[in-house]
Amino acid sequence: QIPKRCLDPHLLLYREVAKFGEHVERLYRLTGRDQSLVLLFDDLVSDPGAVYRQVLAFIGVDDDGRTRFQRKLQSRIYRYRWLQQWLYVPLGRKGPFIDNLHRRMNLKNASGRKSWLKRVARWNTTNVRPAPLDPAMRKTLRETFATDVNKLSELLQRDLSHWLERA
After folding, report:
1. Cys-Cys crosslink for 21: which of 7, 63, 118, 151, Cβ 3.0 to 4.6 Å?
2. Given phi > 0 = left and psi -120 to 50 = alpha, else beta, which region is 159?
3. What is the 3-state secondary structure of 13-52?
4. How far apart, in whole angstroms, are the C-alpha atoms of residue 10 and residue 12?
5. CA dist., res. 164 & res. 149, Å (int)
6. What is the torsion angle, in degrees rounded to the nearest 10, for the CA atoms of residue 4, residue 8, residue 10 and residue 11?
7. Could you tell me how far CA 51 lies from the centroid of its own chain?
């Protein structure tokens, strides 16, 4: 039951993709703790400056004194999902529709294609505030990932129990 236009079916295995505890455990096994830096989005939201300095220290770069961190990308949705799929999702083996169209028209100038595509894609997106997660789904996620959250807590040596609490 994989959708025809699915670009990567492995990403549909939500439980496997979102098991961060398992992924961090594998990372530590492959690279070691001292060669790994795991950052939590929670920390970035609460104190971006501290996280920025932590990354700089980890990669061995001097702090540049930066204190302002602006949001770059907001949550967005497509006005017309069918249009986005039409532009970008492969139609079979031949690639995205626009690429096929340009090949058929023998257009040599890829930069014109990109600017046109970007303008249409930009017009087709609108900024939105994410809808709150349905309480039943939140409960399902807490139950599904409880073991993995506990594993991640142990690996990071941090209390992440608030991820499992009712909100």
Report:
1. 151
2. beta
3. CHHHHCCHHHHHHHHHHHHCHHHCCCCCHHHHHHCHHHHH
4. 5
5. 8
6. -100
7. 18
The pLDDT tens digits of the residues spanning 145-164 come to 999 999 999 999 999 999 99
Section 96-109 average pLDDT: 52
pLDDT of residue 127: 87
Residues 89, 95, 97, 98: is their CA dihedral positive or negative?
A: positive
What distance in Å separates the CA atoms of residue 149 and residue 142, rounded to the nearest whole number? 9
- pTM for this entry: 0.69
Q: What is the pLDDT of residues 78-92, one digit of tens each?
A: 898 888 877 766 555
